[in-house]
Amino acid sequence: MRKKFIAGNWKMNLDMAGARALAAGLKGKLSQSGVLERLDVAVCPPFVYLTTIAQVLGDSNIRIGAQNVYFEPQGAFTGEISAEMLKDVGCRYVIVGHSERRHVIGESDDLINQKLRAVLAGDLEAILCIGELLSEREKGKTEEVIDRQLRSGLALVEKHEMARVTIAYEPVWAIGTGKVASPEQAQQAHAFTRGILASLYDDSVSQAVRIQYGGSVKPDNAADLLKQTDVDGALVGGASLKVDDFTGIIKAGGAN
Ligand code: 13P
Fold first, then answer.
1. What's the pLDDT tens digit per position in 28-50?
2. Pocket flag, ligand 1, residue 214 (CB < 6 Å)
3. Given this model, what pLDDT does residue 32 score?
4. Relative orientation angle of helices 142-153 and 183-200, to the nearest 10 degrees
5. What atom of ligand 1 comes closest to residue 175's alpha carbon?
6. Is 37 a catalytic residue?
7. Which fold has domain 4-254?
């Protein structure tokens, strides 16, 4: 049985006071509920709030992730942040390959692979996002995109390192649009993803890797998505910015 993993991606939102209040609210609601023993929960604040949020969450069992990383360990890379730095401020996870980094910032498959390997080399865990654009889905290219993004994203990643990789299937047309994938669409893409993992590694890896769904996950659609055989959690954007919505999703994950 794969333990469910729900992560909140705060993206470029909130100010310091709002970030603190959100973290404190989550800690207050979740610490007593017992749900954190049944599943893994993380929040991914903007870089500048990581240290503060780590302090607010303390030993609550709500973990911290970063939204991005640079692949070099140190040096003259103005404006960039290394995996070592993220570990130093208390991160456990790093999101790589998010669709906004691929399609808004323009990151290539190759750069994403370098970042993912830097995360693993830095003793952190990676959340590798994959997912097709609406135009690609309409042309019947969903599987082709998943296949390419997985193979390139995981290039040179060894089997034993896959214990520190989570995949997030985030169809781009569902991100921030309110248009959620149906549970069947999510299940189909996740099962396909698991098949690729089996061909890249083996059955034991493909059965152990967690595959999150992301894209307009809300408290009222989370349970149906998380019930699917191959949906092992959620990567939540907008709804992770509200204590009640995010805890509602987490509780739906805890019940499945
Ligand atoms: P929304 O939940 O706002 O659609 O965002 C999903 C996402 O991109 C999480 O990484």
1. 999 988 999 999 999 999 999 99
2. yes
3. 85
4. 40
5. 4
6. no
7. TIM Barrel (3.20.20)
